Every structure is written in C-alpha cells, then in structure tokens.
C-alpha cells in the first residue's frame, strides 16, 4: 500500500511510519515540525519506501499518485502546548482535519484519525473506566478546551463527512501513550519524570499526585491503530492500557527503575487536570482482537534506557 502519515516527525508518527515501512508499505510522511523532531525524519529517510513532504496541514494539500490510507496524527498533544499553541491546535483540529479528509475523499483512501481520551474530559466516577459511549465532561472554555473541544469537533466532522460522502473512516481514542522518542522537553509527565530522575533532580508531582492515568506502551498502540485501520469498525475505539496508576506512584516507580535517589516535589496542580483516566477496552478486544502486551515496568525500562542513551530521548 501507499499511505500518508501526517505528523510523521512526532513521537507516535515516527513509530507508526517505522512499523508500516517494516511491513513493506510505501509511506509519505508529512509534518511542519511544530512539535516534531527533524531527526525522526532523518532516521526514517534512510529507510526504503519513505518520502517526506514538509507541509502545514491547515494549508491546501495535493499529493499526486495513488493513496490507500491517510493516517492523521498531526496535532500538538502535550498540555504544556495548550496555552502557547491554543489557536494552532484549534486550526489543525478543524481546517487540518478537513483538508486531510478532502485528500482522502479525492484519492478514495481510508481516513484513520487519532483522537484522544481527552474527549471524555474530566470523567465522573460513574463513568470509570471510560467506555466509548460516554459523552464526557469537558469545560468548553477552560485551559484544555482548545485540545478537548478541537478533538471533539474533529470527531463530529469525520462522522459527518462519512455520512455525506460515504468515505471510509476510522477513529482511535488514544489513552496516555509513552515510549522512546518522546521529546525530552515536550512537557508531558513521562519525559519530565524520566529526565528529572536521570538528572537526580526532584520529580515535579502536580497536586498530591492522587490523580490517575493508564499508560500504554507505543508498540501496543501502533498495533491497535493498524488493526483498526484494517477493520471495518467506523465507530471510535479506545486504545490504551487499563493498568491504572496514581501519578505519585508513577513517579516512585520511575525513581526506583532509574536507581537514583530523587525525591518528590509537590507543586500546584493545573486547572481542569482530569482526576481519573482509564480505558474500557472491551470494544478493541472484541472487534479488533487487540489487547496490550507490554506491562508498565517493562515499557518504562525500555523508555528509560532510550532516554539514558540518547540526549533527545530516542
Ligand atoms: P507529537 O507532538 O510528538 O506529534 C505530533 C506531530 O504533528 C508533530 O510532529 C508535529 O510537528 C505535527 N504537527 C502538528 N501540527 C501540524 C500541522 N499543522 N501540520 C503538519 N504537522 C503538524 O505528539 P504525539 O504524542 O505523537 O501525538 C500524535 C497524535 O496522537 C496527536 O494527534 C495526538 O493528539 C494523539 N494522541 C496522543 C496521545 C499520547 O499519549 N501520545 C494521547 C492521545 C492522543
Ligand atoms: N504531571 C505531573 N508532573 C509533571 C507533568 C504532569 O504531575 O511534571 C501530571 C499532570 O498534572 C497529569 C498527569 O501528570 O495529572 C499526566 O499529565 P500529562 O501532561 O502527561 O498528560 P495528560 O494526561 O494530563 O493529558
């Protein structure tokens, strides 16, 4: 197949391209390096079957030649960007998704979109773990609104595009994913904690650290995305690891695995930070035969090794 991956220079984009290339597909990577890394594209460019186009997806796109699938991963994803890049995020979730849908429609390609657990916002306790049927609890004007509402708009756009034009669409709701090649200064919890622990500095735990997340290793996520792309499931599907951990315990685990003696520094918690997050993966299990394989300790060891051996976390 010949496929387009928008957001190829990013963390998940790199791993998805790598896997597609290793399966023998031709991959056109596209990125504007807004939060991506040039070295990811340099490494992918050494592989047979990879071509790259530097482009902002909010601008019109034309891509000559056959295209079987469009994977859309183009969007800043770290809460640290929700302030400084708020309008760019809304733009890429609206115009960017629209442009890529048009491209997929013109090419007769399947459109595979990366949505997020953030569409559930700060889930209430009756909806824990989160199933795809949950409508969510999102503050439409809060500090995370650009991303949460942007991703919700994108899902609505995709479903209506499908209804109007009958194109094939797939939507994956990704829960916190981690692994090598996350940017060290990306601002998300895992690069922060690993960098701090490796430097022997205090780990900056927001609030009392009792809020929870469920972390999925990147190879498991990529497997889930590919199974979804190959399926006939047009409804959104949660892909994540249901192994839930408090952020304070997550910090302690990372300290233990690095073997350093950093302490925890409790710092103020950002507004609207979700209290709980854990995927119900029944749909992925039953419709895709998918479940995560890499446990938290194993995944963290691999990621810490990668961060330790390379300054940019790869
Ligand atoms: P990332 O920031 O590493 O990658 C995003 C990539 O998109 C970057 O390379 C960036 O330069 C590119 N990009 C952004 N705006 C663009 C534009 N206008 N034009 C072209 N390229 C653009 O983030 P990631 O963690 O790899 O996330 C990839 C996708 O998965 C995103 O859509 C994100 O919302 C989604 N997601 C990720 C997670 C996670 O835990 N990593 C969780 C939920 C959803
Ligand atoms: N967090 C933290 N310290 C940090 C960065 C994040 O305690 O240095 C917390 C954050 O408040 C949230 C969780 O870790 O409760 C996950 O944050 P992240 O930014 O990785 O992504 P989110 O799941 O909030 O989108």
Named once each, the bound ligands are:
nicotinamide-adenine-dinucleotide, uridine-5'-diphosphate
Work out the helicity level. 25-40%
Dominant shape? globular
What order do the helices and strands follow? EHEHEEHEHEEHEEEHEEHEHH
Largest sheet, order of strands side by side? 3-2-1-4-5-6-11
Low-confidence stretches: none
Number of distinct helices: 9
The chain-level structural class is alpha/beta
Computed over alpha carbons, the radius of gyration is 19 Å
How many β strands by DSSP? 13
Largest sheet: 7 strands, parallel
Mean pLDDT: 97
The proportion of strand residues reads 15-25%
- Give the CA-CA distance, first to last residue: 28 Å
Condensed summary:
With 314 residues, this protein is of the alpha/beta class. It has helices spanning 11-22, 38-45, 86-107, 145-165, 189-198, 218-230, 247-258, 282-288, 296-309; strands spanning 2-6, 26-31, 50-54, 69-72, 110-116, 169-174, 177-178, 203-206, 212-214, 216-217, 237-239, 244-246, 264-267. The chain starts with a strand and ends in a 5-residue tail after the last helix.
List the helices and strands and how they pair.
Elements: E1 2-6, H1 11-22, E2 26-31, H2 38-45, E3 50-54, E4 69-72, H3 86-107, E5 110-116, H4 145-165, E6 169-174, E7 177-178, H5 189-198, E8 203-206, E9 212-214, E10 216-217, H6 218-230, E11 237-239, E12 244-246, H7 247-258, E13 264-267, H8 282-288, H9 296-309
Parallel strand pairs: 1-2, 1-4, 2-3, 4-5, 5-6, 6-11, 7-10, 8-13
Antiparallel strand pairs: 9-12
The structure holds nicotinamide-adenine-dinucleotide (NAD) and uridine-5'-diphosphate.
Nicotinamide-adenine-dinucleotide is lined by residues 6-7, 9-13, 31-36, 56-58, 73-77, 92, 96, 114, 116, 174, 176-177.
């Amino acid at each position: 197949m010949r496929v387009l991956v928008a957001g190829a220079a990013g963390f998940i984009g790199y791993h998805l391209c790598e896997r597609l290339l290793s399966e023998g597909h031709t991959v056109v990577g596209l990125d504007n390096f807004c939060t991506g890394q040039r070295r990811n594209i340099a490494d992918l460019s050494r592989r047979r079957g990879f071509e790259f186009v530097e482009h902002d997806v909010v601008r019109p796109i034309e891509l000559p030649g056959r295209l079987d699938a469009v994977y859309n991963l183009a969007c800043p994803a770290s809460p640290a960007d929700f302030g400084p890049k708020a309008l760019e995020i809304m733009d890429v979730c609206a115009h960017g998704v629209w442009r890529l849908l048009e491209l997929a429609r013109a090419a007769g390609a399947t459109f595979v979109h990366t949505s997020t657990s953030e569409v559930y916002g700060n889930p209430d306790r009756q909806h824990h773990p989160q199933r795809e049927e949950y409508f969510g609890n999102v503050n439409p004007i809060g500090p995370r609104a650009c991303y949460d509402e942007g991703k919700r708009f994108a899902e609505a756009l995709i479903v209506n595009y499908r209804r109007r034009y009958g194109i094939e669409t797939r939507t994956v709701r990704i829960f916190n994913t981690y692994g090598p090649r996350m940017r060290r200064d990306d601002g998300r919890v895992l690069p922060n904690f690993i960098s701090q622990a490796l430097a022997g500095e205090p780990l900056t735990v927001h609030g009392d650290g009792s809020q929870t997340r469920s972390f999925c290793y990147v190879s498991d996520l990529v497997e889930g995305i590919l199974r979804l792309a190959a399926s006939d499931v047009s409804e959104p599907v949660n892909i994540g690891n249901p192994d839930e951990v408090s952020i304070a315990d997550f910090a302690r685990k990372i300290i233990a695995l690095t073997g350093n003696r950093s302490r925890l520094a409790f710092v103020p918690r950002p507004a609207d930070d979700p209290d709980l997050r854990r995927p119900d993966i029944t749909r992925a299990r039953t419709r895709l035969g998918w479940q995560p394989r890499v446990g938290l300790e194993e995944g963290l060891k691999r990621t810490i090794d990668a961060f330790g051996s390379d300054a940019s976390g790869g």
